[in-house]
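Researcher: Re-running this chain for the archive, since the previous output was lost when a drive failed. Same request as before.
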Amino acid sequence: MSKIWLVAEQQFRKDVLKRGFLVAIFAMPIFMGFIIGMGWLGERLQQENTVVGYVDAGNVLALAPPNGDRIEFIRFATAPEARAALEAGEIDGYYLVPEDYPHNREVTLVHGAPISGAAMQLFDETMQRTLLAGQPEPVVERALAGPTLAVLAIDRHRTLPMDAPNLGVFVPLLLAALFAFLAMTVSATLMESMAAEKQNRTIEIVVSSISPGQMMAGKILGVFGMALLLAASWIAILLGFVWLGANVLQWGGLQDMAIDGRDVGLLLLVALPSFLCVAAAMVALGATIVDTQEAQQIGAVAFMLIFAPIYLFFAFSNHPNGPLAIAFSLFPPTSVTTLAVRSIFMQVPTAQFLAAALIALVSSVLLIWLAGKLFRANMLRYGQGLRLKQLLRGRSRQDDRVTG
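Model: Regenerated structure tokens:
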């Protein structure tokens, strides 16, 4: 056992002390920040200054319409003045409020260029406050907020809002994305490292003092420890972004974010053995390849498998507790992503989380054992790959010699 930990420590130090490890720590948060920043910048660039006039000849408005971000309201005394300003291009449009409002509620909007939805919403709020004049402020705010509708899915044990969902609902999906990025970053590196060590015969020197199974187990544990450190770094940086957005930038979506601790905790419980399973699978495959190019090809197929539940998002949303969804939840490479998608639409039973974690853990042990067997069988095949058919054929011959 001490030899396994020695290999794990050496693998951990080797991966963590690389310059690429620091790059990997900041690559994913920078990438996500870039995507969010470009989306915000694109939205800001699409926004234009809107100038809207209004005519309130009867002075019926309780308050003047408030100016907003890139929105300005100008009052005109008569409709001809507002019309002249519109034709001169000084305003984008104007409202005509009847003198006998609210008995006559036919408010007219005259415009040439399209009026932004935010400007129309501000003026509508002003009209509503006029109707609510004299009411206590809590009553006014509650009336302006409007109804809050939600659908209670009894069979799914989940309440789904009719309007935009809370950002906390998507936290499990964010964790699944972190899991996928982690698998992509670590597993490909592990396969390429094993292929390189096989080519320069480094591994064969090491196994002169340690069994192939112990060496494979040590490598997987070392990479697993490095992955935990990398994941902790990513989560810490993301929490920093959330704190900055909620407390400094005052983003309402982050301030009101409610996270389901049960789903997050159970998803992390599944993610740990699932990642160990993926890493063990990459090591087992790495024991059969001969060069780094083949490792990259195999890694690409594995990553497509991890992302498969994303492509089935709408199928899982319609039938989150169907046979396909449950099967993908129990299959270690797709379990984390599938459970994250399903948790948006239903409360996934705890037993399914525990079953997925147990299957991933058992699969990890079997794959670690298989990795040692594959490497032992491939040691004398320098420069040649090993296929599963050849491994089974060699195993059957060995059993024949034992029985004979």
